[in-house]
Amino acid sequence: MLLKPSLTNLALTVLFSLVFGVLIDLDHVFNKKAPWYHKRTWVQEPLGLVIIGLPLAYALSLVNKDFLILTLVPYSSHVLLDYLCVFEACPLAPFSGLKKREGLGVFIPDDLFAKSENTKRWAQRVREKNIRGVSENYFTAFNVALLTLVALLKLGVLP
User: Is this model's pTM higher than 0.90 or not?
Assistant: First the structure.
């Protein structure tokens, strides 16, 4: 929504959002030693954004200036949303072991349509540790509504 409306910009936005907003979670696959509830690596921490995201965004912006925002917005929003969840997090990783404790957050991980094994494990963990929060599915509904509103405003359907 930050770029001029066009089919090309829409396709680029979807592509960059998938790569830098969703596929960043592939680090979970490579973090074999971590327990199931803490698969995130330093790539998804604020310093990961600084060490990987900023230089990559700058390099891509040399190809097209719009790539800067298309890289930084999904990457930084992914990190922010992870910090709003009840996960344990390591803000200064990989240089420090300082941790944001588990349970300090707003959202509890949940699956939108079908309950996976990890969702069931999170539900149990939340009960056992008495962690307070709301399902992240409520945030998903809010995001879809906000995106629809912004799209309608951009298209001139709403005044």
Answer: no
Q: What is the pLDDT of residue 51?
A: 96
CB 49 within 8 A of CB 92: no
- Enumerate residues 6+ apart whose C-beta is below 8 A from 106: 84, 85, 86, 133, 134
pLDDT digits (tens, 9 = 90+) for 83-136: 999 999 999 999 998 999 999 999 999 888 888 888 899 999 999 999 999 998
> What's the token pair of residue 38?
């803490």
Separation CA 69–CA 133 (nearest Å): 31
Q: Contact, 50 vs 95, CB < 8 A?
A: no
The amino acid at residue 31 is N
